[in-house]
Amino acid sequence: MKVTIFTDGAARGNPDGPGGYGVVMRYVDSKQVVHEKELSAGYKKTTNNRMELMAAIRGLQQLNRPCEVELYSDSKYLTDAFNQGWITSWQKKNWVKSDKKPVKNIDL
Fold first, then answer.
1. Structural domains in the chain?
2. Cα 44 to chain center, whole Å?
3. Partner of 25 for a Cys bridge, out of 30, 37, 79, 85, CB 3.0 to 4.6 A?
């Protein structure tokens, strides 16, 4: 089973302005019927990076069984964290960056 997840997040007045995220999830079943689910939420005080992360997290939280996932995001922060191996490094260093400062949005 393969699920495709499209995510986006934004905040106005970054940091600490209003913002939100959106997610579209798509699955094609064995009969080639397309199933889609949309998720979204807004926040009064947030940042762009938090909303980008929340979109990906909320999409992944909807999965209820093991499957292949293709996740799309326009967030360089989110994609580089995985594609550049930042996540692995942060985990090894107990969520501290190379500049010795804690990773932002550690709760996410």
1. 2-82 (3.30.420.10)
2. 19
3. 37
